[in-house]
Design goal:
This protein is an alpha+beta fold. 28% of the residues lie in helices and 31% in strands. It contains eleven helices and 14 strands. The chain has helices at residues 2-11, 27-51, 91-94, 217-222, 240-246, 251-257, 337-350, 352-365, 369-376, 383-395, 407-415; strands spanning 56-60, 62-70, 73-77, 85-89, 103-121, 149-156, 164-172, 192-201, 206-209, 237-239, 259-270, 280-286, 299-308, 311-335. Strands 1, 5, 6, 7, 11, 12, 13 and 14 form an eight-stranded mixed beta sheet that branches. Strands 2, 8, 9 and 10 form a four-stranded antiparallel beta sheet that branches. Helix 2 packs antiparallel against helix 7 (337-350), helix 2 (27-51) runs antiparallel to helix 8 and helix 8 crosses helix 9.
Amino acid sequence: MAPKLVRSAISVFFEYDTPRIVHIKSKKVGFVNRFLQACVIGYVIGYAIVWQKGYQSFEDVQSAITVKVKGVAFTNLTGVPPEGGPRIWDVADYVVPPQENNAFFVMTNMIITPQTQDICDEELGVKGAICTSDSQCHAGIALPGGSGVMNGSCIPSSENATLKTCAIYAWCPVERDKLPSKPVLLASGNFTVFIKNNIEFPRFAVKRRNLLNFMNDSYLKTCRYDPNDEDNDMCPIFRIRKIIDDLHGNFTSVASQGAVVQILIHWDCDLDYDVEDCVPAYGFRRLDSEDYKVSKGFNFRFASHFLEKGVPKRTLTKAYGIRFIVSVQGRAGKFDIVPLMQNIGSGLALLSIATIICDIFVLYILKARSLFRDKKYLTVTGDDAYYEHLDDERNESPVQQPGIADTSSKNLNQDD
């Protein structure tokens, strides 16, 4: 009994299944099969090969960007030396810092505070600054968020005469963070940005730039980017106000507290056609939001130091403005037999899905599924299994009883 079970267990590993073709004449099954095949072929040819350009090999763009801002603005900030009175602001004043990697900042508003190192009162808004006696002000300690180091005195506040604050050693007077009612550099909306973008697709040995062949010096002096104008939709010079307008924003509101804006240059090049058709497309989007309630917009501080009669002084500027981030995306494609054959091979493999679904439909869903199962599956015993079966029959044959003659042997001897 045990050897038989062992042989049966071992025989499982020595079985082979071969496909059996059953030709089923059924309109239902035939329709399902052809429909599934049409879907697979449509997906492979229509989407994978034609729409997704599965007949091409691709490479992502490699890019370098340079930016130049131009424009002047006029202000009259009375009582703010040395910038007080009439003043012209040019690119050296409102582009801070002058160079950034794939980005630039344009100042649109500011709070200017002339300062000297001295002793003055701390801001009322600083926690722990309000006091009633000198004992509340610990000399040599800076309050969290404060502007300087306390000297141990409690003095009247310059913001509110009825209150006292701790005196500090700092750049005095401390900055009063109050925005002007109107952006100081509202004229920055007329500033222009000239973006030069050089790209390369090393795999295809193709170099391009956003200054196209038809552009010359006279064109660049007069053109301004306008996506709705056929003559200027490729112009690489942008008005800042126009960028904000394209974002459906109010420039005055944006200029007041600043913003972060992305300029997107997209290259989508089909190198199976003329390389001159490889041109950029421009897009804009605001990365921050006007709905923010805390830390809205974009700002930072910088200082200009100078000496006045031997006394070190500085002008502290809290600059609000628009930080532009220039991003380049894209890829180029060119015909290549390898991806084409890969997509065709994948499509042929996907056709087996139609067979699998039809088998499920025929063997488990149709009413005549029992009949189709009998036609599809056939068990055949191999030669080795056949002879093993004969051996089992011989071993299980009855043992000859004593006294009973072996007639077969007897007859054989008689014949001899």
